Structure formats: C-alpha cells, structure tokens
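Hi everyone, sorry if this is the wrong subforum. Our group has a chain we'd like a structural model of before ordering constructs, and none of us has done structure prediction before. Sequence below.
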Amino acid sequence: MTKINSLCRCLLPCITPPTNPTTASSSSTTTTGVTSKKRLSTSLRDDIIDVQDSASSSEATSAAVDDSGSLSPVATAPQRPSRTMVIGTLFGRRKKGHVWFSVQHDRLSVKPLLLLELSVTTNQLVREMDSGLVRVALECPRPARPELKSCSLKSVPVWTMFCNGRKSGFAVRRSAGEETRAVLKRLESTTVGAGVLPCGSGSDLDDEVMYMRASYEHVVGSSDSESFHLINPDANSAQELSIFLLRTSS
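Answer:
Right subforum, don't worry. Here is the predicted structure as tokens:
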C-alpha cells in the first residue's frame, strides 16, 4: 500500500500539471502567443487571398482572351496624305503650241521637279478655263512586273489624258530643254500671275508664250495617286484647276 501511494505521488503530477501562478502565467503567455500567431497567420492569409485574387483576375483576363481567340492587332489610324506647297506653271505658244505644266519647289531654279507636255493646245485650255472648272486626269496602267509597282509617279513617261471627263490624247514627261529653261528663267521674279511673254524682235504672234503661274497644293494620297490643286489668291474667283496623277489597274 505504501508503494502504491508513493507511485501515485510520482505519476499524478505528470497526468495533471500543477496550477500554480507561474504555470498560469506561462499558460496565458502561451495562449497569447497562440493568439498572436493566429493573427499573423490571418494577415498572411489575407495577403495570400489578395495575390490569389490578382492571379485569378489575370487568369480570367487570359481566359477571356483565349475564349475570343488570338489577340486582335492594335487599331492604327490610317495614314494621312502628305500636303506640300509647290509652284506650278502652265505655259505654251499662243496659237499652235501645246500646253506645258511645270512643277517647282523653288521659282529660282530652272530645273523643274516635274515637266509634262500635254496634248491640248493653249487655246483649248483657255476655252476649258472659261467654264471656271478644269480637271485634268492623267492615268497610267499599273505595271505587271512587281519591282516596277513601287516606282514614283513622276517617273512615268506617258500618260493617258482626260480633261473634264473627256479623253484628250496623251501627256508626256519631258526634260527641261533650252526653251523651257529660258521661259522659267524669265519668270523667276513672278510668284503669281498670268500674261504673255514678248517674243522679242519678231512680229509673229505665234512665238508669244502665254503663261499662268500660281501656288499649288501637292497632295500625295498613296503610291498610286498624286494631285496638284491650284490655290487661287482671289477668294472671290470661282476658278478651279486640278491635275491628278493616277495609276490604275490595267
């Protein structure tokens, strides 16, 4: 019996721990530690939830993209046509000569950027201009060879010409000869105007050169279309003159 009592005294503290103040404080500290650990784990859990939310939102976005297929390309604005100011001169013999159209960036230069000889005569163009509206369309077929499709319109040698919707022959690209250089040289001091250049000592009126010089708006719509539009200095005038260069399908 004595052995049993002594054995109980040794084992009982192991089964039921003592309830002294030190034990109570340690147990409260343990409880507080557990509570703080729970709060820490809770805050970490909130962070994990936020990450999961962002991940789920990104997954939803990717899923939406996957549902709609591949990403559509970013919409870009169409290319705007370029617009520049040039000096355009129409000139030709008074009676029998054809009309020439010269385009220059600088009126002091006698080497034009573009020089075209039109099949219409000076008198025919004057009659067309009496109506107040002149539209000259120069068309050329698109070349069959791929390497020639991107060539500049200014390098096209021959054009089919339409004046106010009527076929009027052809237009030919020319290089500036001595006579053309002489005309442009005499018009160096002229910015805007129209008139007749005297023929010198001769009395033949056929030798007189009629001219009309003005500023033009050069519009490049694409590699297959360019145009020149007369800028009339007189706002009250109804005169309109446009020249179009067009590359069309053959």
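For your construct planning: The chain has a mean pLDDT of 74. The helical segments are 2-15, 21-68, 122-129, 178-186.
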